[in-house]
Amino acid sequence: MVQFSGLLAFYASLCIANADILQENSKDCDCYVTNGSSSAYFLYRRFFDFRNIPNSNGVYNLEPPNVTSSQDAGGELGQKGYLNSTVFADDWELQTWGRTPRPTTLLRMQNSKQSIYIQDNSKEDNSNATTFLTLRTYRNQQFSSTAEMLGLQRNVFHASIRIYARVHGVPGAVIGMFTYLNDSTESDIEILTRDQINHVRCSNQATIGPDGYTIPGASSDVTLPSPVVWTNWNIYCLDWLPGLSSWYVNESLVLNKTYGVPKLPSCLDINVWSDGSDWSGNMSVGSAAYLDIQWIEMVFNTSGPRHGYPTENNEKRNLERRSGPCKRVCSVDDVERIGIPVRSEAPTTVVVWSFSCCIWLLAAAIIWA
Ligand SMILES: *[C@@H]1O[C@H](CO)[C@@H](O)[C@H](O)[C@H]1NC(C)=O
Ligand SMILES: *[C@@H]1O[C@H](CO)[C@@H](O)[C@H](O)[C@H]1NC(C)=O
Ligand SMILES: *[C@@H]1O[C@H](CO)[C@@H](O)[C@H](O)[C@H]1NC(C)=O
Ligand SMILES: *[C@@H]1O[C@H](CO)[C@@H](O)[C@H](O)[C@H]1NC(C)=O
Ligand SMILES: *[C@@H]1O[C@H](CO)[C@@H](O)[C@H](O)[C@H]1NC(C)=O
Ligand SMILES: *[C@@H]1O[C@H](CO)[C@@H](O)[C@H](O)[C@H]1NC(C)=O
Ligand SMILES: *[C@@H]1O[C@H](CO)[C@@H](O)[C@H](O)[C@H]1NC(C)=O
Ligand SMILES: *[C@@H]1O[C@H](CO)[C@@H](O)[C@H](O)[C@H]1NC(C)=O
Ligand SMILES: *[C@@H]1O[C@H](CO)[C@@H](O)[C@H](O)[C@H]1NC(C)=O
After folding, report:
1. Whose C-alpha lies nearest to ligand 2, atom 7?
2. For the chain, what are the domain ranges?
3. pLDDT at residue 209, as a whole number
4. What's this model's pTM, rounded to 2 decimal places?
5. From ligand 7's centre to the CA of 47, what distance in Å?
6. Which residue's C-alpha comes closest to atom 10 of ligand 4?
7. Which residues cross the membrane (predicted)?
8. Minimal CA–CA distance to 110: which of 156, 68, 167?
9. CATH architecture of the domain with residue range 47-302
C-alpha cells in the first residue's frame, strides 16, 4: 500500500508537471531558445501578462483623469488594483520625476503615476484580452504629462524582448520601449506619432555626439513590412546579443545594427513622452497619445546583482540562480499559446512519455482501488 501510494504520488506529480503551464521561469525549462537570424540561448525568462486581470469592483472601468495644469508635480496617486500590488511593484517602478526644458526642448515634462493604468477591454469582441495596460502622455499648456515604467531587473545582459502593443493618438509624442543603463548604453524601439503609421525608429544610443551632431548609423528609420502599422496590435521584438542588435516586428526581421550595441547590464524601460524637441515634435494643447500593451515576454541572461550597475539598493525578487548544463531547452517562438514556452527538443518523446505516464497513473489507480 505504501509503495502503491508512493508510486501514485510520483506518477501524479509527473503528470501535473507535464500539464502545468510553463509560465514561470525555472520550473520546467533550464534555458530558452529564440528563433530568427539572431537565434540565441538564454537562461532566464519573465512574462508580464496584462491581458486578463480580474476587474474587481470595476476599478478598471474608467480611464483615470488626464493630469491637468494644477497637477504639475507628479504627486498623483496611481491606480488601485494590480498596479498598486506588490506583484507589480516587485518588478516595475512607476516614475514621478520631471524635467525642466533644455535648450533643445520647449516644454517641461512631468511623469505621473496617474498616466499608467489598466483598462477594461471586455466590451471589445474578438480579443482574448479583457484588460490591457496603457501609458499616456497628455499635453497641458505649460507642460507635458508623461508616463514611464522602469524595470527593476537591472542586471539584464543580452536578451530577447517581445512586447505586444499598439499606439494611437496625436502627432508629437515619443513611445519608447528600450533597454537602459544610461545615455550611452541604451537600445531603443521608438514610435514617433508624427511619423507615418508604418515607420518605427530603432536606435542604439548615443545617437547625438558631443559636438551636437547626429551620429551616422546610430538611429534608423525603419519601414514596417506591409500591411503592418503601429496603430494595430503588433509584436515588437529586440534581440540584444553580443555585438548585434536585431529588431523584429511580427516576427519579420526589420533591422540589424552593429553600431553602439550596449556592453553593460541594463533594465527594460517603457515610456511615453513629448517635450517639443525636434525629435518628439509638439502635441497640441489638450491632446493625448497612448501606448497599449497586452504582454511583455523577455528571455535574458544576467550579469551582476539584480539591482544592477551602478549599484542601487533595490534588491527584491531574485531569480533562482542557474548553473549546470541546459538539459531542457524551451522555445518561446511559434508557441501554441502566447507566454507558454514549449520544449524545443524531441516533442514526440515528451508527448508519448506524458501519455504513458497517465496510463500508468490510471493503472495504479485501478490496482489500488
Ligand atoms: C542579420 O544578422 C544575422 C546574424 O548575424 C544574419 O544571419 C542575417 O543575415 C542579418 N540579416 C540582414 C538582413 O542583414
Ligand atoms: C546566455 O548564457 C548561456 C550560459 O552561459 C550561454 O550559453 C548563452 O550563449 C548566453 N546567451 C547569449 C546571447 O550570450
Ligand atoms: C484625456 O484627453 C484626451 C484628449 O483630449 C481625451 O480624448 C480623453 O478622453 C481624456 N481622458 C479623460 C479620462 O478625460
Ligand atoms: C498603493 O498605494 C498607496 C497609496 O494609495 C501607497 O501608499 C502604496 O505604497 C502602494 N503600494 C504599492 C505596492 O504600490
Ligand atoms: C484567442 O485565443 C485563441 C485560442 O488560444 C486563438 O486561437 C485566437 O487566435 C485568439 N484570438 C486573438 C484575437 O488573439
Ligand atoms: C554609462 O555608464 C558607464 C559605466 O559606468 C560609463 O562608462 C559611461 O561613461 C556612462 N555613460 C554616460 C553617458 O553616462
Ligand atoms: C501582427 O501580429 C499580431 C500578433 O500575432 C497579429 O494579431 C496581427 O494581425 C499581425 N499584423 C499583421 C499586419 O499581420
Ligand atoms: C513647438 O512649438 C513651439 C511653439 O509654437 C515652436 O517654437 C517649436 O519650434 C515647435 N517645435 C517643433 C519641433 O516643431
Ligand atoms: C524557426 O524559423 C525557421 C525559419 O525562419 C522556421 O522554418 C522554423 O519552423 C522555426 N522554428 C521554430 C521552432 O520556431
Report:
1. 41
2. 8-41+308-368, 47-302
3. 86
4. 0.87
5. 19
6. 84
7. 350-368
8. 68
9. Sandwich (2.60)
